[in-house]
Description:
By secondary structure, the chain is of the alpha+beta class. The protein has 7 helices and 15 strands.
Amino acid sequence: MSSSLIDFGIALDAGIKAAHAGASVLQAYSHRRSDLIIDHKARNDLVSQADKEAEQAILDTFAQLTPHFGIVAEESGGKPEGVATWYIDPLDGTTNYLHGIPHYAVSLGLIAHAGTVLPQASEPLTRDTPVVAIVYDPNREELFTAVAGTGAWLNGQRISCSKTATLADSLLATGFPFRDFSFEDQYTPIFDTAIHTTRGLRRNGAAALDLAWVACGRFDGYFEMGLAPWDVAAGALLVREAQGRADDMYGNDPWPINGFVVAAGNGLFPALSAMITPHLKPR
């Protein structure tokens, strides 16, 4: 495939425009949350018209600017196709949003598919790879971006993961099981170890921001189970481009598409993985 099929500059610009379009919908509704119609997709899995309208604003932007890419969106679905696919989370942190907690984001990640030749590359990709990331926090007006091979950025300033190398010196983020409890017996001993061996553990309720905060050094590491691919597509690239690692806990997938993610700066990643791996069951 031709490298011209993915123009990183066009994709990043489209993603930034789409993130702002989605966020404008969220912020308009945030001042009248009591008017929102809320549906229950499953236990503790909520969606409102804010999610749906924000997603539509994002889809409209991509339809205009990058119509040749596939779409996988939280509310409207889709499937991976073409040379690359956008993974769209119009509102990461829905429960926070609905309770008036100002900690949520729009998360957009572009995954290039195996067989695609990227710009500046001579050989096609051998596996699916995150190549463009946008995570936008409209409350703090913080725009996290990354492009494969060029680094990660916060509002135009280069960012990097922390240099922390030991669990004893680390502050970790996580997400508790809240919808799927089938892996609770694996998660619980990891959580117990973390609270006894680190400086602290935070549960802020927005996976995309947890990963973005690892990328800019606010958290030293992060782990969570049972996420959706759109929760982590952008954040995984942010961490990787910020001199860190964000991988599938089980080591099976090229990025944490199945929602079992461990992320940290390069110095801490071996210790964090070693804390987690003994408690995992074969999948």
